[in-house]
Each structure stands twice: as structure tokens, then as C-alpha cells.
Design brief:
The protein is α/β, with parallel strands linked by helices. Helices cover 33% and strands 15% of the residues.
Length: 297
């Protein structure tokens, strides 16, 4: 049996599911992995050999300690390896239970399986109610925790990406639609912020012919599973996806012409205008709270 212990959210889970299924099908093992909402083929039972009772346990972790697993660690064959050799795992025919804990975010693991991943394992209904034209562009901007953690991309990355693509309308998909960075982006490019839940936003992004992503697994998968003809992806100088900060991650697509990789030339720093807008919003919020307090009195 191959057991997948999910960590993180949708983008992370899709990597974990695919990594587990590659190993399970390669070894002829049963796969134990919760289905992922929106991807109906993950509900399919993958049957096979089940060596979960009385056999050694191999915990394979990637970029994390095996903190979810609570089994007998005296039986663990290996538990941590930043650059896993997927072939050696599948070539090892010893009878065992395999527990996967981690992120497994290296394109090299999935390159040989990308057709079956797109056409079968992660096939989903990509229909969207939104009208999207072939010369429209979607820009995916991850902010939120990335700003505090030092992984947010600079404005110049998106500027460079947009100078290289023909566009009529620009749409923004983001986790922080009301922040000053997005306000400035909207004003500069007359862009429209798209509001939707997780799956509808995923489908919306995947429906574009031109996609500009940030260093986010969610946006990576939405573009990877799409039929887009051009996808711009970053190589940051710091934070998530940076070779210095996260060498265990390498999601660069090197075998598809539709991908354009852009090396960031700077790290993100708040502009004076962003700071000013942020300060104005804080003052406005404080005044609004004070007025509400007075009205209650």
C-alpha cells in the first residue's frame, strides 16, 4: 500500500496525490489517498498489493519531518530526502508499506507522466460561465502570507511579463484583492479583479490562452492543466521557488514551448505609493471603528 498524508491546500495536494499514484501504479500497490474535490478521477480506487500489516514501513518525506505519521518508527526504512530518486523507489520490489509526507514539488518527478495526469488522473470539467476571449490575459498574483514570508514577487516581474504578451483585457486572480499592490496594478493596467471560490477560480484561470502566474502551486497547476498557448512563470531571487531559499523545489517546465520563464531582477519591496495607500486604509478603518463605537454608545 501507498498511503498519502496530505499537507497544505489544493496545489500541494495535487502534487502529493500524483506522486503517490505514480509510485502505487509503478509497484502495483493499493493507493490510499483521500479524493480531491473537483477532480472526480481521484475518487477512483487504485487497487493492488496491500502490505500494510506485518511488513516494514517506509516513510518518505520531502522538505518536512514525518510529523503526521504516528506508527512504529523502528520499522521506518527512510524518512527524509530532499532530492528523491523516484526510479529507485519504484525499482525497489521489497514488500513494504509506503507512507508519503511532504510536498514533492519537482517537475522531474512528473514529466514522464504528464499526459496521463492531464488526460486522466486530474481531468476536470473546465467549463466556466465567464466569457473569455483569445486575446484576454489572466495575471495570477499571490500575496497574503507571501508578503510577510518574503516570497511575494516584485511589480517589475508582472510588468516584464505583460510587455511580452499581446492583450486586450487583463484579469487578476489573487488571494488579496483589496490590497494596495492590487489597487496599483488595477489602476496601471485597467485590470479587472475576478472573484470566485477555489475551484471556479481554478477553472477560470485554466480557460485563458495566456496566463501569467506567480510562485504558487495553485496557479502552477491551473496553468499546467490548461490549454494555454503561453504561460509566463517566475524565477524569484528570494523566497518560495528561489534556488537559494528553496532548493528542494524546481517546477520549471523545460519541455514545452508555451512556457516563458522570467528571471526576477529584484526582490519585492513596498513602494511609497503602496505604503501611503496602506496608511490611508488603516486610518479609514480606525475612524470607521470609532464611529461605530460612538453610535453604539
Amino acid at each position: 500500500m501507498v498511503e498519502v498524508k496530505y499537507m497544505g491546500r489544493l496545489g500541494n495536494n495535487l502534487f502529493q496525490y500524483c506522486f503517490g499514484r505514480i509510485i502505487a501504479e509503478g509497484l502495483g500497490y493499493k493507493l490510499k489517498a483521500d479524493p480531491i474535490p473537483g477532480f472526480p478521477n481521484t475518487e477512483k480506487q487504485i487497487n493492488g498489493e496491500d502490505y500494510s500489516q506485518g511488513y516494514p514501513i517506509q516513510v518518505i518525506a520531502h522538505d518536512c519531518p514525518p510529523h503526521y505519521y504516528r506508527g512504529d518508527y523502528s520499522k521506518v526504512l527512510s524518512w527524509k530526502n530532499k532530492n528523491l530518486n523516484l526510479k529507485s523507489i519504484i525499482d525497489n520490489k521489497s514488500k513494504r508499506k509506503i507512507v508519503l509526507e511532504g510536498y514533492f514539488q519537482r517537475y522531474e518527478y512528473y514529466k514522464s507522466y504528464k499526459d496521463v495526469i492531464r488526460k486522466n488522473w486530474l481531468l476536470m470539467d473546465m467549463n466556466t460561465k465567464d466569457r473569455i476571449d483569445s486575446d484576454d490575459v489572466v495575471v495570477c498574483i499571490r500575496r497574503g502570507d507571501y508578503v510577510k514570508g518574503g516570497s511575494a514577487l516584485p511589480f517589475s516581474y508582472y510588468e516584464e511579463a505583460l510587455t511580452d504578451v499581446h492583450h486586450r483585457r487583463i484579469f487578476i486572480c489573487t488571494d488579496s484583492p483589496h490590497g494596495p499592490f492590487i489597487y496599483l496594478f488595477k489602476k496601471r493596467y485597467n485590470a479587472t479583479v475576478h472573484f470566485a471560490d477555489t475551484l471556479d477560480k481554478f477553472k477560470f484561470i485554466s480557460s485563458f490562452k495566456t496566463i501569467i502566474i506567480s510562485n504558487s502551486t495553485y496557479y502552477w497547476w491551473a496553468s499546467f492543466l490548461s490549454n494555454a498557448t503561453k504561460i509566463c512563470a517566475p524565477i524569484p531571487l528570494a523566497g518560495n521557488w528561489s534556488s537559494l531559499s528553496s532548493p528542494e523545489i524546481d517546477l520549471r517546465i523545460d519541455d514545452e514551448k508555451r512556457y516563458v520563464v522570467i528571471q526576477c531582477k529584484e526582490i519585492y519591496k513596498k513602494s511609497k505609493m503602496e505604503k501611503l495607500i496602506g496608511l490611508k486604509r488603516k486610518i479609514y478603518s480606525k475612524i470607521k471603528r470609532e464611529v461605530k463605537r460612538i453610535i453604539k454608545i
